[in-house]
């Protein structure tokens, strides 16, 4: 179902636990269109690595909200322990969207392909609403997204490679960042520096499992 060269879009997925606790996670998603009878159904494919709160919430509630966001502080924030961001309840109990989302898609789980490491979840789009115009592409935002991916893989990738790639991103930050991207980039640089200072400390089992997957 997921061809390796499918385009991946970086988004924030909001889910809730069965008792209503909001969870925000950056996730790369793919868009699909399926035929159901005479009707075309828009779908989103999400692939969370186990263990994942997003996965647990999705399996328990069968609901998620896809948030399309250009404030990259949310990506950098979520991977550096800053997961508290304002949200708004959707009508009809369809979950919560991020207040800064330019657009959101309310999703309902329609298929799960089980996998011990990374299940493939397909969700139907049941609402698609735009809240603000997309202002265009910004190089510093792309650098923050790339940096956030690197920080989320600090325990999987060699530190030298991460620092090399962060140095490339720094140029885009220096030339094109607004205050928001400077703040986000600062959090990411702090996380890399913290990892450098603590890299010789023993890993937990979950980290070493993932390292083997990335190798
Ligand atoms: C831009 C970006 C895209 C990401 N995409 C994925 C993804 O597709 N699957 C995944 O498991 N983690 C992805 N991550 C890492 C997760 O956001 C992070 O590990 C998160 O904590 C997921 O676990 P959770 O569901 O328990 O929060 C991504 C991180 C970033 C910054």
Automatic annotation (TrEMBL):
It holds the Pfam family DUF447_N. InterPro entries: DUF447_C, DUF447_N, Split_barrel_FMN-bd. Residues 9-129, 138-190 form the DUF447 domain. This is DUF447 family protein.
